[in-house]
Amino acid sequence: MKILTIIPARMAATRLPNKPLADIHGVPMIVRVMKQAEKAGIGPVIVACDGEEIKTVVEAHGGVAVMTDPALPSGTDRAYAAADIFDPQGIYDLIINVQGDQPNLNPDDLKTMATFMSQGDHDITTIAALSKDHSDRTNLNVIKIAMNDTLVGTKTQAYYFSRSCIPSEAKNVYHHIGVYGYKRRVLKQFVNLAPSYLEQSERLEQLRALEAGMRIDVVVVNSIPQSVDTPEDLEKVKGMIAA
After folding, report:
1. The whole model's pTM is what?
2. Angle at Cα 103 formed by Cα 97 and Cα 106, nearest 5°?
3. Rounded to an integer, what distance in angstroms lies between the CA atom of residue 95 and that of residue 114?
């Protein structure tokens, strides 16, 4: 099984304008994410971008950037389009979609997920970590997963994703990390589905897959990268990387 890692990136973020190019100790954020993904050593890494500015920066740092239609509605659509542009022959069986706002993503976690994906028949795979921050329960920016907690230690299955704490009396809260692995044919099926009711209600794209009857397996890891959505997040991750 051959794996292609794709990092979608666009300039139109509302809370942090020009987010992919945000400077983190002299290195643009999208480049830091790309370098972390490359360290996993699981196959080629490309950036799926929506304009020349990101493409130029990625290529200046030795990366590969694929230009996609700026009108595409989501990062998943951008990843699918980039896979077809980069690999029209379909050589890569598995696609890993890494969100471009996690500059301290742990490469070992990508490697762990890739190993799991390669060893079985999985529609969609993602990763999560046990939250140690009690405030995550009420933080709507932290995506939580309802899953069979008794299976944690190897892998488990996601039943639902929410911005709210689920189950409501959950003993353990699992913080969802923005990395997805797809069989290529499943990714094609997914992007051709219409947005679903639950997806639009929670503003969580992965719920479209669950509503369509797809299975999402979860690999539990030990580290939670800092997502960057706001200027405050950016300052936080700068401090973490400096430390």
Report:
1. 0.95
2. 75
3. 10
